[in-house]
Write a structure and sequence with these properties.
about 130 residues; mainly beta; 10 strands; about 10% helix; globular; binds 1,3-dihydroxypropan-2-yl dodecanoate; ILBP; Calycin; transport
Amino acid sequence: MPADFNGTWNFMNSDNFEGYMLALGIDFATRKIAKMLKPQKVIKQEGDSFSIHTTSTFRSYFVQFKIGEEFEEDNKGLDHRKCKSVVTWDNDKLVCVQTGDKKNRGWTHWIEGDELYLELRCEDQVCKQVYKRA
Ligand code: VLZ
């Protein structure tokens, strides 16, 4: 079996979340609040089925998918742009490609020790976040 992402993960630090939000066209006021947040991720993985709950005091986001199966993503509460998304394994990394109005949009998750890494991509911007197992 590939990597096991199951668990609760607490935000530790972030690099260039601002650039990522700007690339998504998130407004000033929302960016100011969002960059202060320390979200928590609860990931459930059962075979090829995943759910990721990202919760914060301001906004929360939920996504559910099966490896290799394209799904409609609404990005509700984020930038609200609809995407056709698909998540695949790249060795032990989970790679999501979000096809829509924004070029080069997607994310990658991987685990190192008790840390969960997330790289968020949009256009020419890359945001890196680190979470620690709760
Ligand atoms: O995560 O795509 O784990 O969806 C941040 C909520 C959620 C804070 C960011 C509010 C979602 C921000 C990042 C307001 C603009 C994301 C995926 C990978 C799963």
